[in-house]
Amino acid sequence: MSIIELKNVSVEFKQKKKPTVTAVNQVSLKVEKGDIYGIVGYSGAGKSTIVRTINLLQKPTAGDIKVNGVDFVKAGKQVIDNKKLQVERRKIGMIFQNFNLLNEISVLENVAFALKHAKLSDQELEEKCHKLLKLVDLDDKADAYPIQLSGGQQQRVAIARALANDPDILISDEATSALDPQNTQQILDLLKRLNRELGLTVVLITHEMEAVKAIANKVAVMENGHLLEKGSLKQIFLHPQAELTKQFVGGSLEAMNVLNQLNLGGLGKNEVIYQLVYSVSNVTKSIIIELYRQLGIEVSMLYGNVELLGEEPIGTLVILVKGDQAKQEEALNFFDEAGVTATKIQGSEIQND
Amino acid sequence: MISFLSKYLPNVVQLGWGGDAGWGTSIVQTIYMTWWSANFGGILGLIFGVLLVVTKDGGINPNKFWFNICDKLVSIFRAIPFIILLAFIAPFTQAIVGTQIGTTAALVPLTLGIFPFYARQVEVALEAVDKGKVEAAQSLGATNWDIIFDVYLSESRSELVRVSTVTIISLIGLTAMAGAIGAGGLGNTAISYGYNRFNNDVTLVATILVIILIFIVQVVGDYFAKKLNHQHR
């Protein structure tokens, strides 16, 4: 049984004198216990809105929501009363982009706030708080105020607070977006560790593909309120279907940056740029050389990168293929047979970006 | 010292310290009126301020009916000039404290005069609390009471002290007008014994005393507002 089940969930925002905005449109999603489920998309895609329906911070206007086997929403109507919802929410931790710690109380008191209804004795409460702070490696800051901590440390306090009631699920709403790369890495490592050690199910929303690549095992891609694609991380990376997914997976933003700086000028008539994504362990042949040998097609390499997808090395190449229409077709077929995902990159994307 | 004061401020000295018109009496009356109406008006204002924020559209327990009642009540009482309010609610005052005149009678209009002012200030202070903190608390399974006390009131406490200071200072201003219904106080001394009798020295000293009182409130308020604030490094 899935730990989180969203079925045809829609969220509409009614506005005065303006057309209704559909932030989330008929999204279905199943998260299994122990998953680290990444939801990616640009800002405004509706990814934040959809995860906030999981703990009903956002009420959906249509669809069914079931979490931990408890029905929250059926056919767009909340079927759990607010008292029960409060109890259920304690099993769904959530962390935010801006940490959202209470600034007027100490780090320890922030964690204790989450345990207000846990019916612990003062001593048990204090022990539990220290245990949680040790888990995020911040026990020495127990008496500090949040503002005295760095962003990464504040986010770790927020994680300790979110985990206070031993939740089964942790929702991360752009939790690393306000952090520098080093702190981002720390937080991601911590989430991965919690997933492994506590069996915590993590739902990770981000616009940074790097975060998803580093720890997720499943990915969903969203655009304009629609869920474009979902699947295992590897499947999405190696065989992306939607255009946006293809852009996201190949580290193509970074590639674009590089290409922009190369200042290629206009493309020639018979020149096409492709982005190739492939699993390094599967593609043993040297594809570029083979392409020339077998088909006589010339290729310039513009950008190349190999990165780890979980444990799996994934290569990204951006190449310029020279040749007429027929040659281009042949090249695409060749890539397909070799198990390489090729995406055409428009020349205009490079110049305009 | 006394002879120096008698020479330059003869009417001030003549009023004396104790007695109905004495300086000590009027200082105590002003503090008495300020203290009690600050307490009553403060509690009332806090309740209304919290209700406004909680029942507002997008608040933690939206309720159009209660929001409108609170909102209109606050707006109406704010709109009535204090000196008119004094007369307007005289029968109500009579019913509550049994008399329409005197220092204690003044507490009723002072409370009703100051609470809407404070309620609006509290509303603004609570609105300034980051919505994200409220959401985070909700995601932790906090009840609405938890959110009111541990998020809204606790997080805005420094700002609440600041607006309370402003409110008390306004209130000291209102107590001066309460002299109109025989409530005494420094304001009354300045008008009745100073201005009306052409004793400018009395008006001057009463004014200086009011300024000192306000100054003390300001300094104490600033001190606590700063001490209670951990939002900045």
TrEMBL record, chain A:
Q: Where is the signal peptide?
A: none
Looking up CDD domains in the UniProt record yields: ABC_MetN_methionine_transporter (cd03258)
PROSITE patterns per record: ABC_TRANSPORTER_1, ABC_TRANSPORTER_2
- Pfam families per the UniProt record, alphabetical: ABC_tran, NIL
Q: State the GO CC annotations.
A: plasma membrane
Alphabetized InterPro entries for the sequence: AAA+_ATPase, ABC_transporter-like_ATP-bd, ABC_transporter-like_CS, ACT-like_dom_sf, MetN_ABC, MetN_ABC_transporter-like, NIL_domain, P-loop_NTPase
Which UniProt keywords are given for this protein, alphabetically ordered? Amino-acid transport, ATP-binding, Cell membrane, Membrane, Nucleotide-binding, Translocase, Transport
Task: Cite a single GO MF annotation.
Answer: ATP hydrolysis activity
> What catalytic activity is recorded?
ATP + H2O = ADP + phosphate + H(+)
Please tell me whether the keyword DNA repair is annotated for this protein: no
Which BP terms in the Gene Ontology apply to this protein? amino acid transport
Q: Where is the ABC transporter domain?
A: 4-249
Superkingdom in the source lineage: Bacteria
Query: What functional role does this protein have?
Result: Part of the ABC transporter FtsEX involved in cellular division. Has ATPase activity. Essential for cell division and viability.
The name under which this protein is listed is: Methionine ABC transporter ATP-binding protein
Q: What is the originating organism of this protein?
A: Lactobacillus corticis
TrEMBL record, chain B:
**Would you tell me the Gene Ontology cellular component terms?**
plasma membrane
Which compartments does it reside in?
Cell membrane
Q: How the protein sits in the membrane?
A: Multi-pass membrane protein
Q: What is this protein called?
A: Methionine ABC transporter permease protein
In what residue span(s) does the ABC transmembrane type-1 domain sit?
27-221
| Main location class | membrane
Any Pfam family the entry gives:
BPD_transp_1
Q: Name one GO biological process term.
A: D-methionine transmembrane transport
User: What residue ranges are annotated as transmembrane?
Assistant: 33-54, 75-93, 99-119, 160-182, 202-225
User: What family, per the record?
Assistant: Belongs to the binding-protein-dependent transport system permease family. CysTW subfamily.
Q: Which UniProt keywords apply?
A: Cell membrane, Membrane, Transmembrane, Transmembrane helix, Transport
